[in-house]
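Changelog-adjacent note: as of this version, every example in the card shows the full chain rather than a window. The one below runs 143 residues end to end.
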Amino acid sequence: MLFRLVWMLALAGISSCSSLAHEKVNVCTLPPLVAAAGSGFEAWYYDSNVGKCSKFFSRRPKSELELNRFDNETQCNLKCRPNVPTLCFEKPANGGYQGSKLMWTYNSSVSQCVQFLWSAGDTEGKNVVSFKTRLPKKVDEIT
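Full-length structure tokens:
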């Protein structure tokens, strides 16, 4: 009888550990594996403290599914900021000219709206608007 009880508890423990091993971990919340100063591979990670992807030097040469390490900023944004439309990550193309019309754009690097001088004409389908109130104040407000 005691043997059966011990056996059942052992099986329950193994089953419990086995299911934990299959749970998915949100890599975006993990700390990056930072290389020692002066070494490593340039990479990107999601910094959950500031809510954006940042560059760092990784101990690993390539992206791995279970790590908060990405080969480029686009990969990081797609994985860790899926609710932010890709339009918000686009830098407004100003035709290489200094503009004369004061406009607003959402700057994903600082997670807020910023003003700049626009000269490229039509703003349709671009990360550019004439009034700040038409852009989200924070990433959380983007739907």
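Structural remarks: The longest helix spans residues 2-21.
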